[in-house]
């Protein structure tokens, strides 16, 4: 594995504010290791159902999950969405699997489901990944996680196949352009 896709990421890259469907505003920026305590609070505040859908168990060790999601390195890129008060309301992460593919994962505050934040985070992550040579995103999603599957299918025309007890999702990072066309009220041009 190359492990260099994100090693030259500029911290100032693509920090921007966006308006969600409900009219609220979020600012999306790169996640850094110092965000771990705030990520822990965000993950703790997720409903049991949301934690199960994201981590495949409701009994996830929140401290460990926060540490892993806040971790930085040349093979990973995380984004945070912050509300008007500066509190984390969403997180997206991609981890390089090989020089052209990365696994993507997203979590959104329960109160903002259906407001376009998941799509916005995947779009911004895909833009950055594409700039750094990643051409495909993959994900494993529980079959009953309809909202996340809808984000991937409806926004990015993802291919979804049942494999080993989960829905295996794959789509090109370039599909962010498609999501922008389909959801212009949430996704602006980078």
Structure description:
- It contains six helices and eight strands, in the order E-E-H-H-H-E-E-E-H-E-H-E-E-H.
- The protein is α+β, with helices and mostly antiparallel strands and 190 residues long.
- It has one domain: Gcn5-related N-acetyltransferase (GNAT) (Aminopeptidase, 3-Layer(aba) Sandwich), CATH 3.40.630.30.
- It has an eight-stranded mixed β-sheet with strand order 1-2-3-4-5-6-8-7, with helices on both faces.
- The radius of gyration is 15 Å and the shape is globular.
- About 3% of the residues have low confidence.
In terms of topology, how is this protein built?
Blueprint (H helix, E strand, L loop, with lengths): L15 E4 L5 E6 L5 H10 L2 H8 L6 H9 L5 E7 L5 E11 L2 E8 L8 H15 L4 E6 L4 H11 L2 E5 L2 E7 L3 H7 L8
Parallel strand pairs: 5-6
Antiparallel strand pairs: 1-2, 2-3, 3-4, 4-5, 6-8, 7-8
**Biggest beta-sheet profile:** 8 strands, mixed
Low-confidence stretches: 7-12
Report strand %: 25-35%
CATH top level is Alpha Beta
Question: What's this entry about, in short?
Answer:
The chain has 190 residues and is α+β, with helices and mostly antiparallel strands. It contains six helices and eight strands, in the order E-E-H-H-H-E-E-E-H-E-H-E-E-H.
Descriptive keywords:
190 residues, Aminopeptidase, globular
